[in-house]
Request: fold
Amino acid sequence: MEARLPKETYKSLLKTITEGTPLDPDVADVVANAMKDWAIENGCTHYTHWFQPMTGKTAEKHDAFIEPDEKGTVIMEFSGKNLVMGEPDASSFPSGGLRATFEARGYTAWDPTSYAFIKDTSLCIPTSFISYTGQVLDKKTPLLRSMEAIDREAKRVLKFFSKEPKKVVSYVGPEQEYFLVDRDLYSQREDLMMTGRTLFGAMPPKGQELEDHYFGQIKERVASFMREVDEELWKLGIYSKTKHNEVAPAQHEVAPVFSTTNVAADHNQLTMEIMKKVAKRHNMICLLHEKPYEGINGSGKHNNWSIGTSEGENLLKPGKNPKDNVQFLLFLAAIVKAVDDYPELLRLSVATAGNDHRLGANEAPPAIVSIYLGDQLENVVEELVSGKKTKEEALGILDTGVASLPSLSKDTTDRNRTSPFAFTGNRFEFRMPGSSQSISGINIVINTIVADALSQFADELEGSTNIHHDAMDVAIRAFKKHKKVIFNGNGYSDDWVAEAEKRGLPNLKTTPDALPYFASEKSLNLFEKHGVFTKVETQTRTEIMLEDYYKALNIEVLTMIDMAKQQILPACLKYSKFLVEGVTEKEALGISVPNEKASVQKVSALTEALIDNIAALEDVNAKVPEGDGEVIAKYYKDAALPAMADLRATADKLETVVAKDYWPFPTYVDLLYRI
Ligand code: ADP
Ligand code: MG
Reply:
């Protein structure tokens, strides 16, 4: 931009990007022209407004730069108007009943805070997506609104400390987990193709029990995939930094350098897209589903979140002496308060059909939202709350006992992998999000609830004459009131479930339990106060999320029935016929084969059970009640999930007794180890 724009235009645009000032309309024409030249020089013929509808995916409609001129030929044109605004038909995107289909008009609006990029031969312009009536139809707009809320409220608080940053920004670094599977094997599994996860499959003899995959050597095929992903991401200005093997076989992780939340959300969408694309070039498929395989770990997306000023101050940095760092303690208290005030919102921001298989299993934090501060800060909070001195934590030096090795200075806090919302030194790591989710919704919630806590603190401190004392007082009161949400222990243990219940923390186990809170009066008041969502928007979004849930389950049910009836059952029948023929022939020769006979009986009994299980699941699917999304979602949870589990259990038993040659699709051994 600096190289291609006139100085004044560049400065003006930069001001919009870094300080959030409204865009000067004259700037758009100049920027559009420079963008077009840059894009054409790099082989582009088209441009597209790139946006993020409520599908959780991205959308793009490409237009060529060509404009006919009066000579009957064309010129390459891209005006400021084309840059700033687009007008795609909005009727076929999820709106949660917001509009009737005939009310089709929608608009896209340029988001100058996220950089344009080139994909294939198109210039892609990140945009917001809004309906004709002004209702928001996407995930970016409310995210930007929530970032403005943080900016506004954090600035109010910082003012008490005589700081006036140009902007306060929330930052995110999302760690992305995923599985890779061989493409030919994948294409033999209808469940993977239709739903992204295996609906059948017996456990392989070796799972993740040897703990040999995490940080293990990366297989050559995977390494070359990772290298190409990095290159593609770097080309797009996405600073992919960390890559490694994850806990489960064939599971991996990639993480970029953190950026502003808005950019991080755009980049994470692109990252997922690139990973899928590049995997295919290597004859593999990248699985982003939260739980592709039962019995081994699923995939999450750890959302590392912090707030800082445009001048570079990280507001979550405890400093050398956190106990006396009033400003830090106030921000920390705001986050503790936010998490305790709105655990339902945090929980529902990660509620999807896929993620329900993860949360609470022994691999991801439970569905109970709590916050981990680590020993050092826990002690500080304890001292403040009780007024008593706790034991002083000496900053540790780790001695390896080997003279030639350097001694290491320890971090002030250990890690807690079991906590859903863990302080990690200068940021919080929200560990509940699922691997396939857009991170927008999650960060809309985090930004808004923290902005709300900050705004309440600012209200209290308005007019204070002794800010040091009063701010400390506000922080201490907040810690006292919200202490119950702080938990430093093992979040995976059953004790914690009981303890959390005693403390009165909600445990919303499934998506249908959690989603209705989104449109509750409490949430609505919050979102309206900070201008993030209107009432209609919360209601329609709830409806969309519920629909996503039961539609996902419906597709799973239909896929299971298909596979069971058309693949598994015929295979079992064929195999038992083969067994029966052997037994009959041998008996005709007078050879006694009681054990073989028993095998036939076993296969037959299981096959009978399979037929019953199929019928039961078909029955469930035939009886879906009439009603709104909540009713249908609850029905699928209560009726379909158990029937699916029954069918799977029988089929998985059959898999272990039917000969491999007869089994109609690749097994877990193939999928997890043949890469
Ligand atoms: P872990 O050891 O937790 O797996 P990773 O290195 O995989 O850590 O990922 C950590 C992520 O946190 C990276 O994306 C990193 O850029 C991000 N991060 C680091 N500092 C901050 C910060 N201040 N705010 C937000 N994200 C941050
Ligand atoms: Mg990591």
Remarks:
- The first strand starts at residue 46 and ends at 51.
- The first helix runs from residue 7 to 19.
